[in-house]
User: Fold these one by one.
Assistant:
Number 1:
Amino acid sequence: MLKKVLVVALAILMVFSFAACGGDEPAAPPASTGDSADGPAVGDPIKIGFVAPFTGPMANFTVGIHRAWELAGAELNKDGGVLIGDTRHPVEVIWGDTESNTTKASEVATKLVTEDKVDILVGQWTPETANPVSVVGERYKVPTILSNSPDVAWLENGPYEWCWGVLFNIEAELEEFFNGLDTLDTNKKFGLVLDTSLDSILISDILREMAARRGYELIEPGLVPPESNDYSAVLRTLKDEDCDLVFANSTTPVLATIWSQIQQQGYEPPVVMLGKGGTFSADLPSFGKAYVNFSSETQWTPDFPFTSSLLGMTAQELSDDFTATTGDSPDMTIGWDYVIFDVIGDVLSRTASLEPEDINAAFAATDLDCIYGHVAFADNHVANVPVVFGQWVDDGNGNYTKVICGADSVEGLDTNPLTAIPWDKVQ
């Protein structure tokens, strides 16, 4: 199936339109209209406005999205476009770069709606850049889909009428953390290194109840400003409290600073867990040679038992394709990127017309098995997908691979016991 899709991808002229700050791919040719002697009439293109952090501290989150569209776009356009009624509509993407900035996310989303007149708006990656897209979608009544953000943070801006979120549940994610932690003998002192961002505040609130219920003692030294360069006081408290477990949630550059300050203090916790950053193979160089047995949220593994509804490709096949085209290990972007196009492809196959109300109604009726499991939107407009707990381990040749240590939410997914950081090997 992979070869077939790749052949189709090469055979079809892809149409890419870019927002001013989104890139420099070739622009799409104008669509023709009118009757065709060989089939249905060809109508105006369906425009998807895709807002994501292509540059800035969160740029690693978007390393695979253009490849995802290359495959998905080829499939959607293979017969000249999506058939709606008796008319085919080619599908194109207009990219908008948030530059990893909340204000910019709102600006580019607004431009896509008001100037480019997109039919569907997409927002990705963390509350900071996803939530502003939702605000724009609701304001202008444009069907909008979000992926990869904690559901509770997204729901803070609800209720929603025009926005739909394929999201993860923080409580379910943190339960998987504890599932993994239970496999390692520690003193069960769980120390937090968190800033004042919305998702960090929500995480600390959830952990207070969850840690006690799971038999762990939570140590909270206090929150620091986002992008702070000084975590020494927080880490000193965790060291003095003899916390075996340290959890930090921030961007990769900040996490690298935290890791450096842990070593400077001579602090040697057996477990260091990372949220938000530190989850990509491309993040590893930021930590030098010291990236040994770190644990993190794990939002993708080639072992997921899921298949893309649009492409017919398995998690393993899409992972292999990612490595072949980027040279990197399979990363968490794969599921989040392809689920967007799985859902949009399904919605376009069912919508009665390109009127916003009909597209929105098709989103509401989504009931789909796809690359991230089953997607069906609840009354709050959220479809939850699984997030598991993993650990970066040395393969013996100086390379790191992610193994799964907690995955009760995915039936049949094998797990490994968590292992402590070998401090004698940390450089």
Number 2:
Amino acid sequence: MKNNYLVIPSHNLKKKSPNVDFLFPLKGYCVGFKKEYTLEEIDKDSYVYINRLLDSEKIESLKKILPELEKQKGIVFEDLGVLELIKEEKKNISLIFYATHANCSKDTINALLDYVDSIVISPDITTEEIKEILKKAKKKVCLYTFGPIPYMYSRRTLLKNYQEKFSLERKNELELEETSTNKKFVFIENEYGTVVFDEKKLDGRIFLNEENISYHLLNLDWEEIEDLSVWIEEFEKKLPIKNTTDGFLNQKTIYRLPPRKES
């Protein structure tokens, strides 16, 4: 079975390879990327990524560029306002819904698949939970298979506020270490907000060649890649990649504290 890839390209990568579609973060409509792209810079027949939570003004600006977006292969989006806008405007655009921390159950995903062409499964769940979704999803879905794990998105400019408060050098990207566990996090910020990532990248290659996956999403925004065909060939051979993690694949997310034991 051939794997199909939806690739957020590294800054120096332009040439596609077989079974690959590019996903370009749209400048002004995205947060958490080192490299964003204007409409003029986005290759035709690609996917456009919109992952910001949008206000009314930005929805109106998006409405104006929908004719250009119709010429692309589709939109990957996080804000349901994008879905409502396209429905109201009766535009024929392929839609992939990627709510980073929300698409965690087969019931949620199957309900949403009535409205979109596909969905990206959240990277916050375990191997067993993902396999259950793949088995029972009513359409083919996408899987975040490689890239930095996003932990938090704030619409506040956390780095700017912190740096101004303490008269520090202004940086839009910063690695910080949590002192209790010595765990490192990467903060990436633009004028629309801040995203906090694990400093390691998720390696989900155990799902290569699984059934019912339309695309494996590869976020190569942090990578330096000259030849994508070579990189994917090595990726599929499961050659070692530095600084990776299995994320939550073998560790359930703690979402509720257990009852307190009586002493």
Number 3:
Amino acid sequence: MQERKTTPLTEMPVKELIKRSIFLLAALFVMAFGVAFSIKGDLGTSPISSFPYAVSLITPLTVGQATIALHCILIASQILLLRKQYDPFQLLQLPAALVFGLLTDFALNVISDLSPSSYAGQWRLCIIGLILVAVGVSMEVTSKIVTLAGEGFVLAFCKVAPIKFSNMKVCFDVSLVALACITSFTFLHAIEGVREGTVAAAVLVGLLTKQLNKWMAKFEKRYLCS
């Protein structure tokens, strides 16, 4: 995912703000179903969801609730990192996290009956999940309302350390996957939520998002800009 700046809400016409907010909500909806399909495929979740999924297996928290908790930690970390440089506007990451977490649990309930009977079937669900996550991320970028907490944390870290966004994003994703592995192995004596699907997500979601962003730029100009 490429670094980008959000447009301050105060500078947006009301009509455009409403359209972009609805588009962001749609993006969170699509991403939530992407996460849900990845989980049901049981070939490993995307890096950003791997740790919340591991936490959900060892605590009473649902995947969505664990996701909200992680995002809250990441928001607090941004504030600690940036201190006076922190833009209060980024607190909008909190309601976005709440909505995303609730939608994730909703999506998991909707497709709860899906149960692939073969490895190929698992990959089908995994691929659907990857595509939906990529589409959702591209839509979230295009909305230009607010970044989600994961990207926000990476951006904040890059402001206080001489690290390129792309390099820091890789380090962030690898750290979450490592935490998921350590957590699940420590408590369950097996690695859960991290498999070949996680590697596929790490490689393909970014590539798909870049391609979709080209189309989304045209969509934004035609339908979202006032």
Number 4:
Amino acid sequence: MAIWQFSCYVIPKEKADISNHLEIDEISTWRKQGTSTETIDFLDKRKSWSNERSQYGNEDGTCIEFIYDNEVLMEIYCRLDMRSLTKEMLKKILNFVEEIDGLIFYEGEIYSPNMSEIIEIIKKSRATRFCKDPIKFLQELDS
């Protein structure tokens, strides 16, 4: 993960425990959900560093990764490049999340794929703070 990427998981709505402050390993994954990756037509399929991952988009840019264990989908991991993310791309990603009955899991909290809600979370993220003013961000890390 690069500092300019907003990273989150997409978790299954029907299995999500809506209580807050969870760790990703405490949440049921996509096992036996039968989620299809065929609906990803807005990012190019790329070769992943692992045979257990199916990757759409650039690893250091905006991308969605499907993580498998013995060909069973376990996790969906999403990284948004704050240097180039457009509202149109965010809308496509959130539509995908909605289509597969998913929710966004970010920093121990669960969010619906609602555009205005996700934009507010992104605005407060480390990735956005870094992209706004990298020097100030790095100075804050040092203090």
